[in-house]
């Protein structure tokens, strides 16, 4: 590992992301300017199975990886010879899917004699905020909400995180997917519940909001999920038809309230006035609206990426890789996929 600070003018990162079911490549200039951001989604394919099938995802990445890289370079109007470094997600995620991106990145970096920079997928999600919020700088408080993660972290500096809260069981996105499946909305659950909730009453059913004693910033969603399933079973036994829109709105309201209340509490108690959200669930309209209102009430500054930058994409990986490059951090040729990589690990 190199750690000396680099002083450079323009840095062009070719970034690759393949952690789950999106094959993506992007060209990012100086960490905050996206010259291209190409995403090949597999949602339609996995919808047939009600969720992501790892082997199918890996095979599709192999088919698409070269195409999206070529498209990203073409859209940026640049060539590999003009790149400064190659950034790639190496964890967490599906091991087979990650290996496709890592292998492609290593091959390009080796052939072109370019620095290889492995990027933590979740750090990429946080870094998506730098792309559209040019003034945003650490330190800030970030709520990370996705299918596999629900974390409350303080980003102290670029690449430096302190985790102050996390889920004890289901991630918020995982709960969305499970409840959506239970009420017959299908996959992907998050966007479908968000859409149904707009037509429902968020106070039609009052579901529990779990609190962890002694850990005020931690989350728990398994009890909420169980409460929804129990409600559905009870109504079915009683022969009562459930209003799906009301149920979706009530469930979503419980999740959003838990996420927002803990985030605001942490920001208040840590004295942090910049609040950021990141991850797939950060595109949820109710969460964005509730967090914006709560931050305005507290006189906090609220930042969030556009929905396209909340989903898995390579632009966010390019943003994160840039700050690693500036610190002189570089991966070796032994870089490998780490499916269970923890936030802050290297």
Molecular structure report:
The chain is α/β, with parallel strands linked by helices and 346 residues long. The chain has helices at residues 43-47, 54-76, 95-112, 121-132, 172-182, 189-197, 222-237, 244-270, 285-298, 307-310, 315-326; strands at residues 12-17, 22-29, 33-41, 85-91, 116-120, 140-145, 150-157, 160-166, 274-278, 301-303. A 5-stranded mixed sheet has the order 3-2-1-4-5, with helices on both faces. A 5-stranded mixed sheet has the order 8-7-6-9-10, with helices on both faces. Strand 9, helix 9 and strand 10 form a beta-alpha-beta unit. The chain is globular. The N and C termini lie close together (10 Å). The relative contact order is 0.19. It is found in: Cytoplasm. InterPro entries: ATPase_NBD (IPR043129), Gcp-like_dom (IPR000905), KAE1/TsaD (IPR017861), TsaD (IPR022450). Keywords: Acyltransferase, Cytoplasm, Iron, Metal-binding, Transferase, tRNA processing.
């Amino acid at each position: 590992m190199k750690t000396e600070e680099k002083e450079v003018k323009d840095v062009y990162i070719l970034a690759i992301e393949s952690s789950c079911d999106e094959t993506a490549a992007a060209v990012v200039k100086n960490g905050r300017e996206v010259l291209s951001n190409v995403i090949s989604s597999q949602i339609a394919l996995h919808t047939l199975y009600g969720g992501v099938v790892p082997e199918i995802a890996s095979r599709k990445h192999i088919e698409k990886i070269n195409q999206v890289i070529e498209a990203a370079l073409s859209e940026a109007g640049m060539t590999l010879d003009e790149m400064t470094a190659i950034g790639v997600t190496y964890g967490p995620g599906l091991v087979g899917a990650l290996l496709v991106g890592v292998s492609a990145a290593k091959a390009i970096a080796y052939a072109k004699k370019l620095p290889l920079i492995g990027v933590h997928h979740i750090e990429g999600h946080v870094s998506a905020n730098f792309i559209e919020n040019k003034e945003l700088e650490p330190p800030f408080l970030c709520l990370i909400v996705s299918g596999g993660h629900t974390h409350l972290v303080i980003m102290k500096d670029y690449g430096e995180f302190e985790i102050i809260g996390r889920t004890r069981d289901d991630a918020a996105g995982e709960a969305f997917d499970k409840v959506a499946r239970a009420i017959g909305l299908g996959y992907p659950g998050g966007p479908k519940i968000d859409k149904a909730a707009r037509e429902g009453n968020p106070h039609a059913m009052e579901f529990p909001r779990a609190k962890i004693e002694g850990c005020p910033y931690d989350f728990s969603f398994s009890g909420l999920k169980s409460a929804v399933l129990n409600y559905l079973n009870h109504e079915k036994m009683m022969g009562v038809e459930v209003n799906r829109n009301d149920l979706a709105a009530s469930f979503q309201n419980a999740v959003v309230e838990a996420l927002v209340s803990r985030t605001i509490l942490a920001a208040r108690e840590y004295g942090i006035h910049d609040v950021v959200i990141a991850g797939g669930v950060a595109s949820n309209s109710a969460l964005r609206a509730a967090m914006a209102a709560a931050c305005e009430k507290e006189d906090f500054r609220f930042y969030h990426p556009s929905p396209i930058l909340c989903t898995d994409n390579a632009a966010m990986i390019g943003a994160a890789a840039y700050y690693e490059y500036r610190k002189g951090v570089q991966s070796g040729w032994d870089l490998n996929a780490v499916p269970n990589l923890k936030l802050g690990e290297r």
